[in-house]
Design goal:
- The chain is α+β, with helices and mostly antiparallel strands.
- It has a single domain (8-62), classed as Irregular (Factor Xa Inhibitor), CATH 4.10.410.
- 34% of the residues lie in helices and 15% in strands.
- It contains three helices and three strands.
- Strands 1-2-3 form a three-stranded antiparallel beta sheet.
- The two termini are 19 Å apart.
- InterPro entries: Ribosomal_bL35, Ribosomal_bL35-like, Ribosomal_bL35_CS, Ribosomal_bL35_sf.
- One of its GO terms (molecular function) is structural constituent of ribosome.
- Pfam families: Ribosomal_L35p.
Amino acid sequence: MPKMKTKSGAKKRFRFTGTGKVKHGVVGKRHGMSKRGNRFLRQATGMTVVSESDTRIIKRNFFPYER
């Protein structure tokens, strides 16, 4: 049986922590920054952790070997 492939869109959007949690970039910083406040722009830097229920969905459907 051939190897299962990881979804290529998912590997660009998600990273894993050492304990198996899933991180993703903060949404809302692609364009239209002039509409957003300075406080939002400061807080929207870096990565955030995905919720537990979404983590199960992401691992099961997009990363077949991350279990």
